[in-house]
Amino acid sequence: MMEQVPEYRFCGKCKAACGFHSYDLRSIFTWRLLQTVAMGQVLSLLICGTAVSCQFLADAGVRTPMLQSFLNYALLLLTYTLVLCTRKGEGNILKMLRTKWWKYLLMGLADVEANYAVVKAYQFTTLTSIQLLDCFVIPVLMLLSRLFLKTRYRPVHFVAVAVCLLGVGAMVGADILAGRNEGSTNNVMLGDGLVLLSAVLYAVSNLCQEHTVKNQSRVEFLGMMGLFGTLISGLQLAVLETHEATFRDWSASIFMLFAVYALCMYALYSFMPVVVKMTSATAVNLSLLTADLFSLFCGLFLFNYKFSALYIISFVVITTGFILFNAFPTNSSLPENRAESDDHAAASPSLRPLPPRIDVGEAFDAATAL
């Protein structure tokens, strides 16, 4: 057998390391990838709905971010938490609280405070700073996923993230050229710090979400988020926003805007675990980078924003990076649907464990090393 030329062996190893060794176009651009892209953009549209309703509320002089969050958590409580209350056996909410209450408390606390911190940041810093620093959630989430979920990223995933962030840079550049720099400059350091804090807290919340929906269930995650989110946001609402919420002239339009915001957030929280289970929390956050662009497109008609071709370029670049990230799957040591698999195995004791799966990349490396 002829020995391979060293250059070919080197190229083969590079392809294996980057994740290109066993893929062709038909295996990359699949129906599942199309579903992932479409569902990610649905999430972005829901965030756009919350952003537009928030803008209208701000124009009306409403400053109640905690009340808005409380409505969302209350809806989760009235649906998913009640479902957990009706379950029996290991899926009962009381048994979950006995063993894992502190985990879900930390998860709910991180989510509530992340929402509050990023809204509060608008009082101290500019929109440009928020758009840029909010992307900090992606590297933090990748680091946490590597440490706690043992997710292994290939070089192509880092390239995809860089492409998405390049698209964000184009969007921010378009905002600067268009003169859109809303926000405040009262205390830029404090505002930027709040954005970075919210990014870290969002990363923690998203990490907990991915672990729960892939190893337990979507209903358990949403039920516990509704329970602890309602308790924490309700307490903060009573302390911080009671005066603003009670001494206000509530009109029908204000009620309608609150309803739109709450329903969009409820749909976002309900639908996001589905996409996370299909992909990962990091991939979902990459898809959400287009949410600001959808908000800008709505602003062209609702708030008289100026159009820039850079917005279209930014959308294409971010979407390209998102597709590239999802085209090559990551590897995690945590099994998906562990609870469902255990139940199925218990119901079918005659099933034999499958032989260990051969890693194609390792096999390729071994072959090219000969």
TrEMBL record:
<dbReference type="InterPro" id="IPR052221">
    <property type="entry name" value="SLC35F_Transporter"/>
</dbReference>
<comment type="similarity">
    <text>Belongs to the SLC35F solute transporter family.</text>
</comment>
<feature type="transmembrane region" description="Helical">
    <location>
        <begin position="309"/>
        <end position="328"/>
    </location>
</feature>
<dbReference type="GO" id="GO:0016020">
    <property type="term" value="C:membrane"/>
</dbReference>
<keyword id="KW-1133">Transmembrane helix</keyword>
<feature type="transmembrane region" description="Helical">
    <location>
        <begin position="219"/>
        <end position="238"/>
    </location>
</feature>
<feature type="transmembrane region" description="Helical">
    <location>
        <begin position="70"/>
        <end position="89"/>
    </location>
</feature>
<keyword id="KW-0812">Transmembrane</keyword>
<dbReference type="InterPro" id="IPR009262">
    <property type="entry name" value="SLC35_F1/F2/F6"/>
</dbReference>
<comment type="function">
    <text>Putative solute transporter.</text>
</comment>
<feature type="transmembrane region" description="Helical">
    <location>
        <begin position="189"/>
        <end position="207"/>
    </location>
</feature>
<keyword id="KW-0472">Membrane</keyword>
<feature type="transmembrane region" description="Helical">
    <location>
        <begin position="283"/>
        <end position="303"/>
    </location>
</feature>
<feature type="transmembrane region" description="Helical">
    <location>
        <begin position="250"/>
        <end position="271"/>
    </location>
</feature>
<dbReference type="InterPro" id="IPR037185">
    <property type="entry name" value="EmrE-like"/>
</dbReference>
<feature type="transmembrane region" description="Helical">
    <location>
        <begin position="36"/>
        <end position="58"/>
    </location>
</feature>
<protein>
    <submittedName>
        <fullName>Solute carrier family 35 member F2</fullName>
    </submittedName>
</protein>
<keyword id="KW-0813">Transport</keyword>
<dbReference type="GO" id="GO:0022857">
    <property type="term" value="F:transmembrane transporter activity"/>
</dbReference>
<feature type="transmembrane region" description="Helical">
    <location>
        <begin position="156"/>
        <end position="177"/>
    </location>
</feature>
<dbReference type="Pfam" id="PF06027">
    <property type="entry name" value="SLC35F"/>
</dbReference>
<feature type="transmembrane region" description="Helical">
    <location>
        <begin position="130"/>
        <end position="149"/>
    </location>
</feature>
